[in-house]
Design brief:
The protein has helices at about 1-10, 15-25, 40-50, 60-65, 80-90, 110-115, 140-150, 160-165, 180-185; strands at about 55, 70-75, 95-100, 125, 155, 170-175, 195-200. It is α/β, with parallel strands linked by helices. It has one domain (about 1-200): Uncharacterised protein PF01937, DUF89, domain 3 (Rossmann fold), CATH 3.40.50.10880. Helix 5 links the parallel strand 2 and strand 3 (about 95-100).
Length: about 210
């Protein structure tokens, strides 16, 4: 899928907008919810992301990116990380550090998955030292925590990262597809929405 999607992005009037939508659409590749994904479903998710509005403040995200010198990109699923590469290519990869899981968790991306899509040829990759399906800061290694603290902006992909970081401090933007009722309610969006939201824009809900 990468060659077709890269051509689509590079031929667009606003490449970063299309790359952002493709990256969020890639979040449908999740073995936890619904448990399986087909090539057809992945393409359908992309088509929806390109035609439907993104829920959230995209202009604020783009403005924050333009000022950032140090971007921390928290990956989510294997497979999806190929879509992340397309977005990172548009962000000036020299200022991006990509973070993967420290060990297998469902189908979350590890170092091997990042290397499989050539991410190591593009930018620095580190792991967070944890095999939790999300980012539990108390379970992460010192190298990751240092990057987390020093980042100008943190891009957190997927529901697992949203669940575990939505109450943590930091300039965190969450990119995900709302795939279950609990997460949709917490983000105050409809199930199926393609979401870009900032930590301080999330409603304080108890569930």
């Amino acid at each position: 899928m990468l060659p077709k999607l890269r051509k689509l992005i590079l031929s667009a009037d606003n490449p970063i907008d299309i790359a952002l939508r493709v990256a969020i659409a890639g979040n449908v590749i999740d073995m936890g919810i619904p448990g399986n994904i087909t090539n057809r479903q992945a393409w359908k998710s992309i088509e929806n992301a390109l035609s439907e509005p993104l829920i959230g403040n995209q202009s604020e995200f783009i403005a924050a990116l333009s000022k950032a010198k140090n971007i921390l990109y928290l990956a989510d699923n294997a497979g999806e990380i190929a879509f992340d590469r397309l977005l990172i290519e548009q962000l000036d990869p020299k200022r991006v550090t990509v973070v993967v899981r420290g060990g297998p968790a469902i189908n979350d991306a590890t170092i091997l998955d990042a290397r499989a899509v050539g991410m190591h040829e593009l930018t620095e990759i580190i792991d967070n030292g944890s095999d939790a399906p999300g980012t539990l800061l108390a379970d992460c290694n010192p190298q990751f925590l240092k990057h987390f603290k020093e980042a100008d902006i943190i891009i957190a992909k997927g529901q697992g990262n949203f669940e575990t970081l939505s109450e943590e401090p930091g300039n965190i933007f969450f990119l995900f597809k709302a795939k279950c009722r609990v997460i949709a309610e917490h983000a105050a969006v409809k199930i199926g929405s393609h979401v870009i939201t900032r930590r301080n824009q999330i409603p304080s809900l108890i569930y």
